[in-house]
Design brief:
This protein is an alpha/beta fold. 39% of the residues lie in helices and 23% in strands. It contains 11 helices and 13 strands. The strands form 2 sheets. Strands 1, 2, 3, 4, 7, 8, 9, 10, 11, 12 and 13 form an 11-stranded mixed sheet that branches. The longest helix is centred in the middle third of the chain and has 22 residues, at 197-218.
C-alpha cells in the first residue's frame, strides 16, 4: 500500500513537472519453441506420418489467413502421405475449414485428426475432413449451426447487436404453430416487428452454406453422398445448443469414423497444450489508467523444425470523450520460428495481407 501511494505521488509530480510518468516494464509472453519441439520430435518417432499442430487460444478463432500460414509450414513436410493433425479450437470461419482441408488434401492422401480437447464449431468441420478422428477423454466436437450478427439485427439493452440463429427461428415458428389461434396463421407478420426480414434471409443463407460446406468437406473421404448429407443436416439442426458437447459415444452414433486416442499419445498432446497455454497467457501491461499494452500469442501452427504463431502486440489508449479504448502502435503479426542447420533458432515476421 505504501509503495502504491509513493508511486502515485511520484507520477503526479512527474505530470505537474511535464515529465512522462515512469511506466511498468511491458510484459511479454514466453516462447517455448525448444520445449514444444522436443515433444513433437518424440511424437514423430512413434507416428507413421507427419505431425502438425493447429492450436488456437480461447481469445482467437479460425480465419482464412490461417490457410497461408498452413501453406508456409507444410513446405517442411517429410514426404509422408499420412498426416496426424492435432486440432484445438473453439471455432471460427467454416469457409477457412474447407480451404485448410483442401490445401492439406493436395499434399496428403490420409489425414487423422487428433482431438484431445476442444474442437468446436468450425474446428469440428475441419476435423470432419479427416479420414479418422481420434478423441481423448476430454475431447468434444459440437454442432455446426450458424449464428450471425447482421447490421439489421435486433439490439439488446446495451445497444449492441444481437446474434440470430436458424435454430432459434425454427423453434419460434414451431412453437407458434403449436399455440396459434384460428385467425392467426402467419407467424412472420409478428416476427418481422422484432427481426428484420433481411436478417431472417441472411440466417437461412448462412445455414444453407454451413450444410453445403460440411457436405463438401466430408466428400474428400466419404463417398456415400446420402450419409454425408444426413450427417451435415444432423449437425446443423438436431442439437438444442450450438455448444452441445458431442463426445466420443455421440460421435459414433452420428456415424463419424472415430476411435479412442491412445493414452500415451493423449498424454503427450496434453503436455503440448500446457506449453501452448503458457505461451498464450494474457500478457497485459497497465501503465496507468489511460494507457496499456496488449502482448498475447493467439494461435500456433507447428511442425517438426518450424513454428508459426500469431502475436497481438499493440498499445491501447483510453479516449475519455468517446469513452472507449483506441488501439495504437499495432505491431501484431505472425512470427516464424525455425531451427537452422547450425542448431540455433531464427525468428522472423511472416506477413499476410
Amino acid at each position: 500500500m505504501r509503495y502504491q501511494m509513493t508511486k502515485l505521488l511520484s507520477d503526479n509530480k512527474d505530470r505537474l513537472l511535464g515529465r512522462k510518468p515512469r511506466q511498468a516494464e511491458t510484459k511479454k509472453p514466453p516462447i517455448l519453441f525448444k520445449e514444444t519441439q522436443a515433444i513433437i520430435k518424440d511424437l514423430q518417432r512413434h507416428l507413421d506420418g507427419d505431425f502438425l499442430v493447429y492450436w488456437i487460444s480461447d481469445t482467437s478463432n479460425m480465419i482464412s489467413d490461417d490457410v497461408i500460414a498452413f501453406n508456409k509450414v507444410i513446405q517442411k513436410r517429410s514426404g509422408h502421405k499420412r498426416l496426424f493433425l492435432f486440432i484445438k479450437s473453439y471455432g471460427g470461419s467454416s469457409k477457412a475449414a474447407l480451404r485448410i482441408i483442401n490445401l492439406l488434401r493436395s499434399v496428403y492422401e490420409e489425414i487423422i485428426a487428433l482431438v484431445p480437447l476442444d474442437c468446436a464449431s468450425a474446428a469440428t468441420m475441419l476435423a470432419l475432413g479427416a479420414d479418422m478422428i481420434k478423441m481423448g477423454p476430454l475431447a468434444y466436437l459440437s454442432a455446426i449451426d450458424t449464428s450471425i450478427t447482421h447490421h439489421l439485427s435486433p439490439i439488446d439493452n446495451d445497444n449492441d447487436l444481437v446474434s440470430v440463429s436458424q435454430n432459434e427461428l425454427d423453434r419460434v415458428i414451431r412453437l407458434w404453430g403449436q399455440t396459434k389461434q384460428v385467425n392467426d396463421t402467419n407467424p412472420y407478420k409478428e416476427l418481422y416487428t422484432y427481426i428484420h426480414p433481411l436478417v431472417i434471409g441472411a440466417v437461412d443463407r448462412a445455414s444453407s452454406l454451413s450444410i453445403k460446406l460440411t457436405r463438401e468437406i466430408l466428400s474428400y473421404h466419404m463417398k456415400d453422398e446420402e450419409k454425408a448429407s444426413q450427417i451435415s443436416q444432423h449437425l446443423n439442426s438436431d442439437y438444442p445448443s450450438h455448444s452441445y458437447p458431442i463426445t466420443y459415444v455421440e460421435a459414433q452414433k452420428i456415424g463419424l469414423h472415430v476411435k479412442p486416442l491412445e493414452d500415451k499419445l493423449n498424454e503427450k498432446l496434453l503436455q503440448l497444450n500446457e506449453l501452448y497455454s503458457e505461451m498464450a497467457q494474457r500478457a497485459y501491461t497497465d501503465h496507468d489508467e489511460m494507457f496499456s499494452h496488449d502482448n498475447e500469442i493467439m494461435k500456433i501452427i507447428e511442425i517438426g523444425g518450424e513454428q508459426l504463431f500469431y502475436q497481438k502486440d499493440k498499445d491501447w489508449r483510453y479516449r475519455m470523450e468517446e469513452k472507449r479504448w483506441i488501439p495504437m502502435n499495432d505491431e501484431s503479426s505472425w512470427r516464424f520460428l525455425r531451427k537452422t542447420t547450425r542448431g540455433s533458432t531464427e525468428m522472423s515476421r511472416f506477413y499476410i495481407r
